[in-house]
Amino acid sequence: MVNSKIAGIGFYVPEQVVTNADLMKVMDTSDEWIQERSGIKERRYGKKHEETPTTMAANAAKIACERAGIKPEEIDFIVFATLSPDYYFPGCGVLLQRELGITHKEMGAIDIRNQCSGFIYSLSVADQFIKSGMYKNILVVGSEMHSMGLDFTTRGRNVAVLFGDGAGAVVLQPTTEEGKGILTTHLHSDGTYAEELALISPGSHGGKHLGKEQFGFPEALYGEIFVYENLIENKTYYPNMNGQLVFKTAVTKFPEVIMEALNKVGMTPVDIDLLVPHQANLRIAQFVQKTLRLPDDKVYNNIMKYGNTTAASIPIALCEAWEAGKVKDGDLVCLAAFGSGFTWGSALIRW
Ligand code: ACO
């Protein structure tokens, strides 16, 4: 049977380090508040107007390709996960293809817009393509440049302090080695709370969920009023988060979807060699660790250094762990994520 294996992995984070003290210069916050609630000490911000999710992804992808022993032009499909794309459209997949100079005519590219669980969804999509025999070298990327779209005033402090920029990439290839590679993936969604963790403008919602009916203006006039009320006044072009709801739901869904994956392959938490959770918040990761009764050396967290890099957080953390020798041949690695949508998912990999 053919499975997919991670043949190469790479990550890139921008040089500029932004500490909690730096944020205190522009908004009313404190190092103590941020560390106590999220565990974050510092994060990286890309160079504005020079670096983008695509350029950062290209840096990570080149490392992943080199480690997989292939040239970028040997990639036959790109799956690109981001919530902070270079453009509204086209997606980052084609921009990355161009950045990497891939011109052969078998090439395909898609973007996955599943925010924090974007990398797990992307990995699962790529896994199906490999198993079906459709592609041989798939580049799966998560990349975010949050620093271009956060509200750095005190109004946006509950969200702005949490996020950072960066990119991670893996090359997926088929393997026939018995019991190796991606063993199982599990994807879930529930749109009930879509607006509780969202950035809703620009969009074609036309005020739905924002009390459009209360205005009672003709459509023609409504457009301008809507733009003013919601874009300018309510700043709906910044992310909005109901932090407590996200926290409560995340600490339930993370263990649930990890157990679902373990049950599928007849294993239990003690079989996990390394859990790499989406780096949403150190408190969430610690809660999950406690629920699954995993010792410290079986969970990899790096949110302290990079903040929450959304779709990039899992491949960055996985790559860092691998570079530090924490992922060895034969290890059972568990990846899991929860985020906006709500969407959540898990993957079990025998390295
Ligand atoms: N600095 C200082 N004070 C702040 C900040 C800040 N950066 N942000 C909010 N506050 C204040 C609030 O204004 C509020 O003040 P008030 O009591 O005077 O009204 C007070 O702190 C408490 O605010 P809450 O929002 O109730 O704070 P809470 O204890 O819930 O912590 C947090 C907020 C950290 C976001 C928490 O809800 C949480 O961890 N949620 C999980 C969400 C998460 O991790 N999201 C990551 C992105 S989504 C994902 O990846 C899944």
From TrEMBL:
Q: Which SUPFAM superfamilies match?
A: Thiolase-like
Catalytic residues identified in the record: 116, 278, 308
Name the keywords, alphabetized.
Answer: Acyltransferase, Cytoplasm, Fatty acid biosynthesis, Fatty acid metabolism, Lipid biosynthesis, Lipid metabolism, Multifunctional enzyme, Transferase
User: EC number(s) of the enzyme?
Assistant: 2.3.1.180
The enzyme's first-digit EC class, named in words, is: transferase
Q: In which pathway does it act?
A: Lipid metabolism; fatty acid biosynthesis
Question: Which Gene Ontology CC terms are recorded?
Answer: cytoplasm
**An annotated GO BP:** fatty acid biosynthetic process
Chief site of localization: cytoplasm
Q: Where is this region: ACP-binding?
A: 279-283
**Which segments constitute the Beta-ketoacyl-[acyl-carrier-protein] synthase III C-terminal domain?**
262-351
- Catalytic activity field: malonyl-[ACP] + acetyl-CoA + H(+) = 3-oxobutanoyl-[ACP] + CO2 + CoA
Output one GO MF annotation.
Answer: 3-oxoacyl-[acyl-carrier-protein] synthase activity
| Compartment(s) | Cytoplasm
Show where the Beta-ketoacyl-[acyl-carrier-protein] synthase III N-terminal domain sits: 110-191
Annotated InterPro entries: ACP_syn_III_C, ACP_syn_III_N, FabH, Thiolase-like
In the UniProt entry, what is the domain comment?
The last Arg residue of the ACP-binding site is essential for the weak association between ACP/AcpP and FabH.
Q: What does this protein do?
A: Catalyzes the condensation reaction of fatty acid synthesis by the addition to an acyl acceptor of two carbons from malonyl-ACP. Catalyzes the first condensation reaction which initiates fatty acid synthesis and may therefore play a role in governing the total rate of fatty acid production. Possesses both acetoacetyl-ACP synthase and acetyl transacylase activities. Its substrate specificity determines the biosynthesis of branched-chain and/or straight-chain of fatty acids.
Q: Of which family is this protein a member?
A: Belongs to the thiolase-like superfamily. FabH family.
How is this protein organized at the quaternary level?
Answer: Homodimer.
Q: Could you tell me what this protein is called?
A: Beta-ketoacyl-[acyl-carrier-protein] synthase III
Q: Which gene encodes it?
A: fabH
